[in-house]
Amino acid sequence: MIGRLLLRDLSHLLPGGRRGGSMLPLLFFLAVAMLFPFAVGPDAPLLARTGGGVIWVAALLASILPLDRLVAPDVEQGVFDQLALRGVSEEIVIAVRVLAHWLSFAPLLLLASVLAAALLNLSGESLRLVLAGLLAGTPGLAAIGVTIAALTAGLRTGAALSGLLLIPLAVPILIFGAGALERQDYGAIALCGAISLVLVAIAPFAGGAAIRAAREG
Amino acid sequence: MQECSLTARELACRRGDRLLFRGLDLSLSSGDAIHITGPNGIGKSSLMRILAGLMPAYSGSLARSGGIGLVDERPSLDEHSPLGKALGFWQRIDGAADNEFVRLGLGDLLDVPVRYLSTGQRKRAAFARLLGQSAPIWLLDEPLNGLDRDAVALVERIVAEHCHGGGIAVIASHQTIAIEGGRTLAIEDFAK
Fold first, then answer.
1. Is the predicted pLDDT of residue B1 greater than 80, yes or no?
2. Which contiguous run of DSSP H or E holds residue A100?
3. Do B52 and A85 touch (CB under 8 A)?
4. How many domains in chain A?
5. How many Cβ atoms from other residues are within 10 Å of residue A132's Cβ?
6. Which domain range does residue A38 map to?
7. Domain limits at B22?
8. CATH code at B152?
9. What are the backbone angles phi and psi of residue B113, rounded to the nearest 5°?
C-alpha cells in the first residue's frame, strides 16, 4: 500500500510529473542564486562570505513554490475520502507525501547547490557545510510544507497563505542550518537535523488531523 | 459476496445551525436496495457521508458490516492522467478485480486524460472504480447526473446485479431510478 501511494505521488511530483513537476522550483532556486551577485556586485570575498546564506534562502523560497499542488488537488478530488473508505488513514497518506515531496526536490536541490556555490565563489569547506546542512534541513522543510499544504487545502487563499505560514516555521531550520556556516561547526547541523526529525515525526499527525477537520467541517 | 448489513438508528444531521433531519431509521441487509429521495439541500449527500463514516452524525448510532464503496460528485481520478492510468491506481489499491471498462463504454477512452472527459464519462469512470473495489455496500450519491438514457439503464442493471449478488445499494437521487423492490425513503419526512 505504501509503495503504491509513493509511486503515485512521485509520478505527480517528480520533474516531468503530471502536476507541473519540480523543475520550476529548481530553476527558480538557481535564478535567485544567480541574481544575488548582480545585486551586491562582483566582490568575491563578500560573495564567499554570504553565499551560503543566499543558498539557504533560495532553497527556502524554492520549497514554497509547489505547496498548493501538494495536497489540495487530492482533497478536492475526494481521493482522501476514497482512501479512508478503504481503511488507509490520512496519516499514512501524509507521511508518504512528505517522503515523495522530499525526494522530488531535495536531491536535485543538493545538485543545484553545487552549481550555485560555483556562481557565488564558495570555498570547498563552505560547500560541504551547505550540503550537509541542506541534507539535514530539507526533510524538515518538506514536513512543514506538506503540513501547511494539508492545513490550507480547503481554503481559497491557500497558495498565498501557505508561503506566509511556512517562513516563520522554517526559521529554526534556517538558524541552525545556515548558522553552521558562520561558525564552521557541524554541531549546529546536528541540531538542524534534530529539528528536522521532530518536524517529520509531527507532520503526519498534524496533516492527517487537518484533513479530517476539513472533511467534517 | 459476504453477508453485509447497514443499520442506522435515530440519525440526526446538523449543518451549521440548521438541523437537516432527525429520527431517521434505516435497516438494510444483504440484497437490499433503497432510493433516498428529496429536493436539493434536504441532506441527501450529508446522509450518504454519515453512512460512509466520513462525517459524524449529530446524534444517533450507526452499525455496519462490510466495506463501503462510494460514488459521489467527485470521481477521485487524477485530472492530468490518462483514464487508464488514473483507474490503474485504484486497481492496484483494490486488488485486480474487473473494472468492466468495455461494458461501461470506456474501452476507447483509456488513453484520454481525465480532464477531457465529459460529466457522463467521468460518472462511468467512477462506476468502473466502484466495480473494481468489490465492496458489498454501495453508497451512490446522485449516480445518474450527466448520464444519458442508455447509461441510466446500465446503472440500473449494475445495481440490480450487485443486489442479486448479496450487496446493499443506497442511492440518493432526485431523479427517478428503477430499483428492485422499489423501496424509497423520503428525507422530508424526517425534517423537523
1. no
2. helix A90-119
3. yes
4. 1
5. 18
6. 2-216
7. 5-190
8. 3.40.50.300
9. -60, 145
| Gap from B75 CA to chain A (nearest CA, Å) | 7
Asked if A86 lies within 8 A of B67 by C-beta distance, the reply is yes
**Searching chain A, which residue's CA lies closest to the CA of residue B139?**
A85
Task: Compute how many other C-beta atoms are within 10 angstroms of the C-beta atom of residue A176.
Answer: 24
Helix (H) or strand (E) holding A71: none
Q: Quick one: which of B190, B126, B158, B192 has its CA closest to B178? A: B158
Q: How many domains does chain B have?
A: 1
Q: Which amino acid is at B12?
A: A
Q: Are B75 and A77 a contacting pair at CB < 8 A?
A: yes
Residue bearing the bigger pLDDT, B105 or B69: B69
Contact B74 A83 (CB under 8 A): no
Residue of B14, B80, B117, B141 for testing the chain A interface, max A β-carbons within 10 Å: B80
The predicted-structure confidence for A54-109, as pLDDT tens digits, reads as follows 899 888 888 888 888 889 889 989 999 999 999 999 999 999 999 999 998 899 89
Supply the ipTM of this predicted assembly.
0.91
pLDDT in tens, A116-160: 998 888 888 889 999 999 999 999 999 999 999 999 987 877 677
Give B128-178 pLDDT, tens digit per residue: 999 988 899 999 999 998 899 999 999 999 999 999 999 999 999 988 888
A213 touches chain B (CB under 8 A): no
Q: Is A18 near chain B, with CB under 8 Å?
A: yes
Q: What is the pLDDT of chain B when averaged over all its residues?
A: 89
SS3 B149: helix
- Taking contacts as CB-CB distances below 8 angstroms, the residues of chain A near B92 are 4
pTM: 0.91
Is B135 in the A-facing interface, judged by CB distances under 8 Å? Answer: yes
The alpha carbon of residue B151 is apart from the nearest alpha carbon of chain A, in Å, by 23
**Which region among A191-205, B19-33, B91-105 has the lowest average model confidence (pLDDT)?**
B91-105
Exposed / middle / buried, residue B182 (Cβ in 10 Å: 0-12, 13-18, 19+): exposed
